Amino acid sequence: MMVQVLLTLAYCGTSFAGFQVQKNARTVQAVMQDAIESIWGERLPVVGCSRTDAGVHARDYKLTFRPDDRLPTARIPAALNAHLPEDIAVLDACVVPDTFHVRHDVYEKEYEYVICNTPSRDPFSVNTALHYRRPIDAVLLHRAAQAFVGTHDFRAFMASGSDIADTIRTVRSVSVTRNGAFVYLRIAADGFLYNMVRIFVGTMLAVNEGKLSPDAIPAVIASCDRKNAGITVPAHGLYLNRVVFAEPRLTDL
To answer: Checking phi first, is residue 145 left (phi over 0); if not, alpha (psi -120 to 50) or beta?
Structure first.
């Protein structure tokens, strides 16, 4: 009997060219299909909750596939991890109804961007956090970032050349916090435009540098003009931190 299984993954994106299968490139989707094929003997399709870009990491990535039920759900993570490289791991597995869709049923995603805020670079976070030398006022940026909360047209925070027509999204929470040398920018929303989080972080850094007033964010959003927002920061500081589904419809096999 075929079942639909939902996997929770964590991976370091440094050596991946993103999630989606690409010709002559190492991707999360292809590596997962390799592991699944090693166990079930066929290359089963897998569907991911998001198309993470090259270099982006994930702590709570969701993926579905439809195997036969030869393995109990509880044994699937260990079985797959035995065939996966060290930079990706299956944390959990459960069966979901056939009607469940790992993208369409997402209620909220949360991304986190990590900044190493030190004068000298930290060699241990070179691929997992953005090194930024100038002191960051996390309290100031947290206050400025609250302008993103709510339902807005975020066209100004979408990468140029993107062909997405509907640019309205609802941001449910934003925070900027510090823990020692590291600053964490978190944003949760019902969906994100291409590079939206990385442009949001770049805009916060423009505020930190005095290039943009903390009170100017509403005007930047209202302008719908990419030129008014900040730079697109590098991918290696970005994490898919949390995925929440609309209904808890998960079961055991």
So the answer is: alpha
Residue-wise pLDDT tens digits, 29-71: 999 999 999 999 999 999 999 988 999 999 999 999 999 987 8
Instruction: Point out the residues that are catalytic.
Output: 53
Task: State the DSSP code for 226.
Answer: G
Percent of the chain at pLDDT > 90 equals 89
How far apart CA 253 and CA 231 sit, in angstroms, is 47
> Which positions ≥6 away from 133 have C-beta within 8 Å?
117, 118, 119
Whole-angstrom distance, CA of residue 11 vs CA of residue 176: 23
Assess whether pLDDT exceeds 60 at residue 253.
Answer: no
DSSP letter for each residue of 227-253: GGS-----GGGEEEEEEEESS---B--
Residue 174: closest CA among 111, 106, 239: 111
